[in-house]
Amino acid sequence: MELLGEKCAVFGVYGKGLEVARLSFFGLFALQHRGQESAGMAVADGESITLHKGMGLVSQVFTEDQIQQLKGHISVAHNRYSTAGGSHVKHAQPMLVAGKGSVERPEDAPSAGMYPYVSLRSAPEDDTIALVHNGNLPSTTALADFLRSKKIDSSEYSDSRMMAEAIGALMREGKDLEDAIVEVYPLMTGAFSVLIMSKDKLIAIRDVCGIRPLSVAQLNGGYVIASETCAYPTIGAEFLREINPGEMLVIDEKGMHTRTLGTPNPKLDIFEFVYFARPDSELLGTSVYEVRKNFGVQLARENKIEADVVIPVPETAIPSAVGFSRTSGIPMELALAKNRYIHRTFIQPEQHIREQGVKAKLTPIVSSIKGKRVIVIDDSIVRGTTSRQIVEMLFEAGATEVHFLVASPPVKFPDFYGIDTPKQETLIAATKSVEEIEKYLRATSLRYLSYEGMIAATGLPESSFSTSCFNGVYPIDIRERAKEVKNV
Ligand code: AMP
C-alpha cells in the first residue's frame, strides 16, 4: 500500500453568480507554498462536474482557456506537495468518484508530456462527487477493511482516494452525501481537512484534533473555504471563522449549516507556525508573523552571543531574525539572497541533488559577511543537509564565526499527519546530540529554541497544539505506525 505524506492546500467556493474558477485559481495561487507538485480544481454547475488537474505549479496547470471552461457555482481545488517516489498525476486532486452507476472513472487516463494533466466532464447521471484532502492518515486499515467489504480493492489507493471511494460506495447504495460522510468519518483515522463537493453542495470536514488548518470566509453572499487565511484578502473575501475540529460544515442552497461528527480535542500542528504557513495567515486567531518574531525574541533571551550581524535564511526565518535582532541589539542583514523563482519541483528529492539545490537557491552577499562574526537563523533543521551547506557558504564568504540558531526545538520524531518530515532515522536530531550536530554542521556553535520558549512565543496554551515532531506525543493514535517510532 502506498502511503503518501500530503502537505497540501485545499480551497473551495460556493456562490451563485461568483466566478468560482477564477476565484479558485487565485486562492490556489495564494496557497502555492503548501504544495508545488500538482494543482487542480473541479467545478459543479448543478448538473455535472468539470475537472482540470495536472502536474506543476498553479500557473503551469491553468491557462485562461481552462479557467473559462470551468463553469459553475461550486468548486473544490487543491495544491499537492511533492514527495519522493509519489510524483504522478494519478495522485493529483480533486479526486472524482461516481455516486451512482458505474465505478469506472475516465480519469485514470491522463495526457502524456512534461506536465501531464487530466481534463474531463462528469456525466450528470453519475452523481459524481469531488474530494480534496490536506493531511495524512497514518493508519488506513479501517478504510481498507470497509472498502474490501464493498468489494473495492484499495491496494493502489492513496489515503485521500480511499476516503472518496468509501463515500462514493455508500452513495451508490442509496445514501445521500451527508449521511455517507457521517458513516465514513469514524473510519478516517488521522489528520484531515477535507472538502467534498457534489453537484449542488460544498461540505468541509476536519478531524477531531484539527491538526491541519481550515477556515471559512464570506464573499458577496457566497462562501469560501481555505487552508489558510492568507487566501482571503487576495480575492476580497472576509474571514468568518475556523472550521471546528470534529465539525462538518455544509453549504448549499439553504445556506450554511453545521454538525458535530466527533468530540473536539483541538491540537493544531505547531509546525504550521514554525515553517509551513504563510506569515500573513492567522491560525487560532494569532498572526503567524508575530509568532515567528516571538520565536526570535525567545531565542535572543535564551542565548547571549557576541556577534556582529544576524542573517536569516530566507524566507521563513526572516520574522524570527527581526525579533532576535531587536532583542539582542545585533543588526540584521539580508545577506543570503534567495532566487524567488526556484521551487521544490525543480529540485530532485535525491540527496546529492538536494545538496546542489541549496546553491541554486541561496547566494551569500559577501560585503555583509566578510570579516564578521555571524549569527545565522533558520526556522528548523530536519535532515541537516541545508544547514551544513549554509555554514560552509558563510565561511567561504569570509565569516570569522558562524553561530547557527534554530527558531524551533530539535525535530526528533517523524510526522504522520501530513507535513512530510521523513523517516525518523533521517532526522538528524533523532540520531545525534546537539554537540554532534554542531560538529556535523561545522558551526562555531549551534543553539535551538527551547520547547518551553517555542510554546511561550505562541501566546497560547501548550494544550492547543500537536507537538509530535518535537516530543513524540501523537494526539491522534498512529496505530500500527507506532512501531516506526523510537524514543530518543
Ligand atoms: P534540511 O535540514 O536540509 O532537511 O532542511 C531543513 C529546511 O527545510 C528548514 O530550514 C526548513 O526551511 C525547510 N523545511 C522544514 N520542514 C520542511 C518540510 N516538512 N518540507 C520541506 N521543507 C521543510
Features:
488 residues; alpha+beta; Glutamine Phosphoribosylpyrophosphate, subunit 1, domain 1; Rossmann fold; 2 domains; 8-stranded antiparallel sheet; 6-stranded antiparallel sheet; 16 helices; globular; disordered N terminus; binds adenosine monophosphate
Q: Give, in spatial order, the strands making up the sheet with the most strands.
A: 6-3-2-4-1-11-10-12
Mean pLDDT across the residues is: 93
CATH class of the largest domain: Alpha Beta
Rg from Cα: 23 Å
Our count of domains comes out at 2
The biggest beta sheet is recorded as: 8 strands, antiparallel
Counting H and I runs of at least 4 residues, what is the number of helices? 16
CATH topology term of the largest domain: Glutamine Phosphoribosylpyrophosphate, subunit 1, domain 1
Q: Give start-end ranges of low-pLDDT stretches.
A: 1-5
Strand content: 15-25%
Bound molecules: adenosine monophosphate
**Range of helix content:** 25-40%
Separation of the first and last Cα atoms: 28 Å
What's the name of the CATH homologous superfamily of the largest domain?
Aminohydrolase, N-terminal nucleophile (Ntn) domain
For the record, the CATH architecture of the largest domain stands as: 4-Layer Sandwich
Q: Structural class of the secondary structure composition?
A: alpha+beta
How many DSSP-defined strands? 24
Global morphology: globular
Active site: 8 (nucleophile)
Protein name: Amidophosphoribosyltransferase
EC number: 2.4.2.14
Pfam family, one: GATase_7
